[in-house]
Amino acid sequence: MPKKLLPPEAARDFLVRRFGNQHDNWLVGEGTWPLLVGLGPPTERDIAEDSAAVREWATAWQGWTGPGDVVFENRQFPRMGRQRLPVSLSMPDAAAVARCIGQLQRWETATHRFWRVRARWSAMEPRTLAARFDVLADYSAADFERLVSLLEWFEANPASGLYLRQLPVEGLDTKWLEKRTGLVAGLLRSLREVSDDEGDFYRMFGLRKPAHRVRVRVLCPAMRRVAGGLGDIEAPAGELAALPIEPLAVLIVENLETGLALPDLAGTVAVMRLGNAVGVVRALPWVIGAKAVMYWGDMDTHGFAILDRARRAVPHLQSVLMDEKTLLSHRHLWVQESAQCADLPMDALTTEERAVYQALRADAWGPRVRLEQERLGWAEAMTVLRLALNRNVSN
């Protein structure tokens, strides 16, 4: 069959792609109708070279019983005379396209729900809603009713101060909402006609955010007795702030396994695995008041970004095992950072730290170089760490 001839199955494939690309636009009333799908009518040469294939193609379209109409035209050829040939498939509307490709139920469900929501919230941007076509088309009845009820409740209670678990929406559970925060937040932003930059979803929804939990290890045996014998503690930052301890040194380590492996160290407390939330340490008076506060993290762009945040929270904080010498002497242990952090000023870094950070960003030593904290030899790291703690405490 000549390549340009479009048989019915290929026309359906074309409509599948067009439906997938355009159903959002069709839902908001866009699109030119009828939609004409060219069938690639043959030339006289096509008929002469493979008349059987052309005849099979024409017969297939003559027997078309699907949605839409096949448009035929009489074509006059010099040697073959007048021929009646199919030239296009005409689809009157989106519903016909959906019916043709087996998507009619999804289209009708999405259309019904789209107009139901639009009738309830006329201020909602139609495209924002239409962009959630899969939600409109595929959510179960229970899930869709839950979504609408939730939007109604948030509209009526913009600043409830409740926890997720307390929301009085039938059938709602925290896992259901946590999986759909982007969906709900996007619809709510459109409903409220506000910008996308609204912070985390707790603030967006007017809910109470769970307290940030911090995990610490009291490495000093004497301080453990003061803390009721507890050595490994995880609690909200506000509660940890009340611990009756006065460490001389605080070690902030990014990796949890590193923190758990740390040995007893007199006068020292370790704070573990804070990541980008490292600024929470400013709420812990025994951290701010410690004579020596040190940060030990991965040597990559994100590690230096966290170090920058940590020093903004604790200005006298010092880094350890995050210098150029440590990095370059462990080349054989390097891996690649999956993606570098945003290019920020990092004004809280020292001159030496910023030089390493900028060299990492510039790929001065190779593409996206990263030295993970865990790859350093433990005995070597402990020697350097003890020396750094003793030096900073004694100064």
UniProtKB/TrEMBL annotation:
Pfam families: DUF3322, JetD_C. Residues 206-382 form the Wadjet protein JetD C-terminal domain. Residues 10-188 form the DUF3322 domain. InterPro entries: DUF3322, JetD_C, UCP028408. It comes from the Bacteria. This is Wadjet protein JetD C-terminal domain-containing protein. It comes from Pseudorhodoferax soli.
